[in-house]
Amino acid sequence: MGGRSVQSVTQQENREQPPAKKSLWTLFWVMFKIGAFTFGGGWSIVAQVDREFVQKRGWITSQELVDFTTVGRSLPGVMVINTAVLFGRSTAGIIGALVAAVGVAMPSVITIAVITVCYDAVAHNPLVARAMRGVRAAVIPIILGALFSLRKASLVNRFSYLVAAAAFVVSLFTGVSAILVVASGAALGLLLRGGRGRDLP
Predict the structure, then answer these.
(1) pTM, rounded to two decimals
(2) Least buried of 44, 78, 107, 125, by fewest C-beta within 10 Å?
Protein backbone atom coordinates (compact mmCIF):
# COMPACT_ATOMS: atom_id res chain seq x y z
CA MET A 1 0.00 0.00 0.00
CA GLY A 2 2.79 2.41 0.90
CA GLY A 3 4.53 1.85 -2.43
CA ARG A 4 1.32 2.45 -4.35
CA SER A 5 0.63 5.64 -2.38
CA VAL A 6 4.07 7.02 -3.11
CA GLN A 7 3.68 6.16 -6.80
CA SER A 8 0.25 7.84 -6.94
CA VAL A 9 1.61 11.00 -5.29
CA THR A 10 4.53 11.06 -7.72
CA GLN A 11 2.25 10.68 -10.74
CA GLN A 12 -0.01 13.46 -9.44
CA GLU A 13 2.97 15.78 -8.92
CA ASN A 14 4.17 15.09 -12.47
CA ARG A 15 0.74 15.93 -13.88
CA GLU A 16 0.63 19.19 -11.85
CA GLN A 17 4.03 20.42 -13.01
CA PRO A 18 3.63 23.67 -14.98
CA PRO A 19 4.57 23.65 -18.67
CA ALA A 20 8.00 24.87 -19.69
CA LYS A 21 8.28 28.61 -20.37
CA LYS A 22 7.35 29.50 -23.92
CA SER A 23 9.74 31.59 -26.01
CA LEU A 24 10.01 32.42 -29.70
CA TRP A 25 13.63 31.29 -29.77
CA THR A 26 12.75 27.88 -28.32
CA LEU A 27 9.87 27.61 -30.78
CA PHE A 28 12.12 28.47 -33.74
CA TRP A 29 15.04 26.24 -32.72
CA VAL A 30 12.97 23.17 -31.92
CA MET A 31 10.93 23.55 -35.13
CA PHE A 32 14.21 23.96 -37.03
CA LYS A 33 15.46 20.67 -35.59
CA ILE A 34 12.15 19.00 -36.40
CA GLY A 35 12.33 20.30 -39.97
CA ALA A 36 15.88 18.98 -40.30
CA PHE A 37 14.79 15.44 -39.40
CA THR A 38 11.33 15.22 -40.96
CA PHE A 39 11.83 12.39 -43.44
CA GLY A 40 9.25 10.16 -45.05
CA GLY A 41 6.45 12.69 -45.48
CA GLY A 42 4.55 15.05 -43.25
CA TRP A 43 3.32 12.45 -40.78
CA SER A 44 6.75 12.14 -39.20
CA ILE A 45 6.39 15.67 -37.79
CA VAL A 46 3.62 14.41 -35.53
CA ALA A 47 5.94 12.13 -33.56
CA GLN A 48 8.52 14.87 -33.09
CA VAL A 49 6.04 17.57 -32.07
CA ASP A 50 4.45 15.10 -29.65
CA ARG A 51 7.79 14.35 -28.05
CA GLU A 52 9.09 17.93 -27.94
CA PHE A 53 5.99 20.00 -27.17
CA VAL A 54 3.48 17.60 -25.61
CA GLN A 55 5.56 15.24 -23.51
CA LYS A 56 8.74 17.23 -22.88
CA ARG A 57 7.52 20.85 -22.59
CA GLY A 58 3.77 20.58 -22.11
CA TRP A 59 3.00 23.49 -24.42
CA ILE A 60 0.01 21.72 -25.96
CA THR A 61 -2.06 18.64 -25.24
CA SER A 62 -2.32 15.46 -27.26
CA GLN A 63 -5.86 16.44 -28.24
CA GLU A 64 -4.65 19.79 -29.60
CA LEU A 65 -1.92 18.07 -31.61
CA VAL A 66 -4.50 15.71 -33.10
CA ASP A 67 -6.65 18.71 -34.05
CA PHE A 68 -3.73 20.59 -35.62
CA THR A 69 -2.68 17.53 -37.58
CA THR A 70 -6.20 16.86 -38.82
CA VAL A 71 -6.74 20.41 -40.01
CA GLY A 72 -3.20 20.70 -41.41
CA ARG A 73 -3.65 17.51 -43.41
CA SER A 74 -6.99 18.66 -44.77
CA LEU A 75 -5.96 22.14 -45.88
CA PRO A 76 -4.32 22.86 -49.24
CA GLY A 77 -0.56 23.07 -49.20
CA VAL A 78 2.18 21.20 -47.37
CA MET A 79 1.02 19.35 -44.27
CA VAL A 80 4.21 20.11 -42.32
CA ILE A 81 3.91 23.86 -42.86
CA ASN A 82 0.16 23.88 -42.17
CA THR A 83 0.60 22.00 -38.92
CA ALA A 84 3.51 24.21 -37.87
CA VAL A 85 1.49 27.37 -38.54
CA LEU A 86 -1.46 26.13 -36.50
CA PHE A 87 0.78 25.05 -33.64
CA GLY A 88 2.77 28.30 -33.68
CA ARG A 89 -0.43 30.35 -33.74
CA SER A 90 -1.75 28.59 -30.65
CA THR A 91 1.57 29.09 -28.87
CA ALA A 92 2.51 32.70 -29.64
CA GLY A 93 -0.07 34.23 -31.96
CA ILE A 94 0.65 35.39 -35.49
CA ILE A 95 4.35 35.87 -34.74
CA GLY A 96 4.51 32.33 -33.41
CA ALA A 97 2.88 31.02 -36.59
CA LEU A 98 5.52 32.78 -38.72
CA VAL A 99 8.39 31.65 -36.49
CA ALA A 100 7.23 28.03 -36.51
CA ALA A 101 6.73 28.02 -40.28
CA VAL A 102 10.13 29.58 -40.98
CA GLY A 103 11.84 27.28 -38.49
CA VAL A 104 10.41 24.05 -39.89
CA ALA A 105 10.90 25.11 -43.53
CA MET A 106 14.44 26.51 -43.32
CA PRO A 107 16.29 23.15 -43.20
CA SER A 108 14.53 22.04 -46.38
CA VAL A 109 15.38 25.31 -48.13
CA ILE A 110 19.03 25.01 -47.14
CA THR A 111 19.16 21.35 -48.16
CA ILE A 112 17.55 22.00 -51.55
CA ALA A 113 19.95 24.88 -52.17
CA VAL A 114 22.95 22.65 -51.47
CA ILE A 115 21.56 19.76 -53.53
CA THR A 116 20.89 22.11 -56.44
CA VAL A 117 24.54 23.10 -56.48
CA CYS A 118 25.75 19.51 -56.13
CA TYR A 119 22.94 17.79 -58.05
CA ASP A 120 25.09 16.11 -60.65
CA ALA A 121 27.23 14.54 -57.95
CA VAL A 122 24.40 13.08 -55.88
CA ALA A 123 21.50 12.53 -58.31
CA HIS A 124 22.57 9.05 -59.38
CA ASN A 125 24.86 8.17 -56.50
CA PRO A 126 24.01 4.61 -55.33
CA LEU A 127 25.24 5.34 -51.80
CA VAL A 128 22.83 8.26 -51.46
CA ALA A 129 19.97 6.12 -52.80
CA ARG A 130 20.72 3.34 -50.30
CA ALA A 131 20.95 5.81 -47.43
CA MET A 132 17.55 7.30 -48.30
CA ARG A 133 15.97 3.83 -48.43
CA GLY A 134 17.25 3.22 -44.92
CA VAL A 135 15.93 6.58 -43.74
CA ARG A 136 12.47 5.91 -45.18
CA ALA A 137 12.36 2.50 -43.46
CA ALA A 138 13.44 3.98 -40.12
CA VAL A 139 10.71 6.64 -40.27
CA ILE A 140 7.89 4.06 -40.25
CA PRO A 141 8.22 3.01 -36.57
CA ILE A 142 8.51 6.68 -35.58
CA ILE A 143 5.19 7.44 -37.24
CA LEU A 144 3.57 4.34 -35.74
CA GLY A 145 4.86 5.34 -32.32
CA ALA A 146 3.23 8.77 -32.66
CA LEU A 147 -0.05 7.19 -33.72
CA PHE A 148 0.02 4.86 -30.71
CA SER A 149 0.77 7.78 -28.38
CA LEU A 150 -2.04 9.97 -29.74
CA ARG A 151 -4.71 7.28 -30.01
CA LYS A 152 -5.92 7.94 -26.44
CA ALA A 153 -6.86 11.49 -27.40
CA SER A 154 -8.69 10.39 -30.56
CA LEU A 155 -10.18 6.95 -29.91
CA VAL A 156 -12.29 7.63 -26.85
CA ASN A 157 -15.40 5.49 -27.45
CA ARG A 158 -16.98 2.93 -29.77
CA PHE A 159 -18.17 5.62 -32.14
CA SER A 160 -14.65 6.99 -32.64
CA TYR A 161 -13.33 3.49 -33.35
CA LEU A 162 -16.02 2.96 -35.98
CA VAL A 163 -15.29 6.30 -37.65
CA ALA A 164 -11.55 5.59 -37.62
CA ALA A 165 -12.07 2.15 -39.17
CA ALA A 166 -14.37 3.53 -41.86
CA ALA A 167 -11.99 6.38 -42.66
CA PHE A 168 -9.09 3.94 -42.89
CA VAL A 169 -10.91 1.72 -45.37
CA VAL A 170 -12.08 4.65 -47.48
CA SER A 171 -8.63 6.26 -47.54
CA LEU A 172 -6.85 3.02 -48.35
CA PHE A 173 -9.12 1.54 -50.99
CA THR A 174 -10.72 4.54 -52.67
CA GLY A 175 -9.60 7.78 -54.25
CA VAL A 176 -11.66 9.96 -51.91
CA SER A 177 -9.76 13.08 -50.84
CA ALA A 178 -8.62 13.57 -47.26
CA ILE A 179 -10.72 16.73 -47.01
CA LEU A 180 -13.91 14.78 -47.76
CA VAL A 181 -12.96 12.02 -45.31
CA VAL A 182 -12.36 14.51 -42.50
CA ALA A 183 -15.52 16.48 -43.34
CA SER A 184 -17.54 13.26 -43.31
CA GLY A 185 -16.17 12.38 -39.88
CA ALA A 186 -17.14 15.82 -38.58
CA ALA A 187 -20.62 15.48 -40.04
CA LEU A 188 -21.12 12.05 -38.47
CA GLY A 189 -19.99 13.38 -35.12
CA LEU A 190 -22.51 16.21 -35.28
CA LEU A 191 -25.40 14.10 -36.55
CA LEU A 192 -25.00 11.13 -34.24
CA ARG A 193 -24.29 13.21 -31.16
CA GLY A 194 -28.01 13.90 -31.03
CA GLY A 195 -27.79 17.64 -30.38
CA ARG A 196 -27.99 17.25 -26.60
CA GLY A 197 -24.32 17.72 -25.77
CA ARG A 198 -24.03 14.07 -24.74
CA ASP A 199 -20.96 12.07 -25.65
CA LEU A 200 -21.59 8.87 -27.57
CA PRO A 201 -20.67 5.54 -25.92
Answers:
(1) 0.58
(2) 125
